[in-house]
Amino acid sequence: MSSIGSIGSASHHTDSNPSSKIAAIYKQIAQLAQQLSELATCGDNSEITNEESAMIESEIKMLETLIAQLLARQNQPDPLRASGSMVAAADGINRPTGNHQLDVYT
Fold it and tell me: Alpha-carbon distance 35 to 41, whole Å?
């Protein structure tokens, strides 16, 4: 019943697609909610059970925050994709021009 092994596994998801990351996090939240409901129905009010419930609830909040961050990042326009270039090349800085050339051999 321990959720210690699942802590942070969604944040290390290797897929670069934000939608699949979000889906994986929702799946993990559902699993944690199931664990939480199992703890609630077991009827054991021990300190360990209460601590585990608190840990699961905090993990769910952390995952919900991660989803909010991913959604915000997904809704922001990517300036690199919009410009069509990975490196912004200014004249004379990244590309030589007639006025901005160095002769390293003189």
Answer: 10
